[in-house]
Amino acid sequence: MFLVGWAALAIFYFSQSLAQKFAMHDPTPWWHFLAIWVIGLYIFGSLALGVLWLGRRFPIQRRNWIRRTVLHFLFSLGFSLLDLAIAAAIFPLLRVLPSVFKDFSSAFGFLLVIDFHGSVLGYWTVLGAQAGIRYYRRYQEREREALRLELQASELKTQLARAQLSALKMQLQPHFLFNTLNAITVLVRQRKGQLAEDMLARLSDLLRCVLEDVEAQEVPLRRELEYLQIYLSIQQVRFQDRLKIDISADPETLDAAFPQMALQPIVENAIRHGIGGRARAGNIKISASHVDDDLVIAVEDDGPGFSSHGNSRAGIGLPNTRARLHQLYGDDGQLVTANRENGGAKVTLVIPYRPAPDLSTTEMMEVHAVESPDR
Question: Same domain, yes or no, for 198 and 346?
Fold first, then answer.
């Protein structure tokens, strides 16, 4: 590439000299001009390698640009003199333009007059091109580094969001686990061994099913309702006939994506505050529907409802679920609490409707919730 590049430049300048020759009817053979340009540019190109070395060894930078500019100016003078001296030594030997290049001194004097400034300018052209390429490469490196840092920041942000989601998720699950274990402890103290055994069996079912999807933030609503059925079977062991559950879900909602274990704390809140504090039976209604582009889940109970002086029954479950929805869906995920007109509380969960992640590789759950709680 070195030889081809300088040869192409030599032919370009040779064409100009050839045009001048014919325009001025110059009798000098054309090959003289060709030899002068090819040899002259090859000499310059060979010396330009030294210019590149000097540019790397003594780069002009902001902190030293005055000293380095003066230094390269001196280098350019020496470069030009050396370039012309080599050419002046070669041209007389080739007998090109013999009337001009008779010997070294006459050739050097002639070249010094017509080409000294051009050679100096060539030095600075090579030096400037090197600086431009160096600046462009640094710019590309900075761009790549900026993209790398941006990508790293994005990955860290994603990891942080996942960690926050996992923290919220894991905070909910131990909360439920502790409540269930406390209920089992009460049954044991009341010497209700069979009921305690039933609750332990169902708790084992639920933990096994949840662990199967432990890495998933979203599962099909169908899977979430299976979790819920096991959880409700545990509560039915505890409350017996005092707990009445009505679950209705539009068939098209069953394959929608839903945050894993997000429904359980809402239902637990309804049971604890709507039924747990009274002796008579209570009803809890759970419904799922597809409204426009949203999946809407409503959990209603006929308990005392939310306090007018604040959400006194929120506990840890509802705030954590609300925070988790915000992490997953931003402003598109909502958890709304309200009192029903005919008494009781209603919690509505709204998230974007979209297909559930593929969990086909997960084994189908075998649950004891289908069995009678009175076994």
Answer: yes
Positive or negative torsion for Cα 21, 25, 31, 32: negative
In this structure, what CATH number is given to the domain that contains residue 228?
3.30.565.10
Answer whether 220's CB lies under 8 Å from 358's CB.
Answer: no
Please report whether residue 247 resides in a domain. Answer: yes
pLDDT in tens, 262-294: 888 888 888 888 776 666 788 899 999 999 999
Average pLDDT over residues 190-206: 81
Between helix 104-189 and helix 65-94 the angle, nearest 10°, is 130
| Per-residue pLDDT at 365 | 35
108 and 223 share a domain? Answer: no
Residue 167 lies in a domain: no
Same domain? For 148 and 197 the reply is no
Tell me, what's the pLDDT at 315?
64
Element (H, E) at 278: none
SS in 3 state form for 291-327? Answer: ECCEEEEEEEECCCCCCCCCCCCCCCHHHHHHHHHHH
Is 130 a domain residue? Answer: yes
Which segment of 2-11, 48-57, 70-79 scores lowest on mean pLDDT?
Answer: 2-11
| Distance separating alpha carbons of residues 68 and 45, to the nearest angstrom | 23
Domain that holds residue 100: 2-152
Helices (H), the chain: 2-23, 30-57, 65-94, 104-189, 193-212, 221-239, 263-274, 317-329
Between helix 30-57 and helix 104-189 the angle, nearest 10°, is 40
Compute the average pLDDT of residues 69-85: 94
Label residue 99 exposed, middle or buried (CB < 10 Å: 0-12, 13-18, 19+). exposed
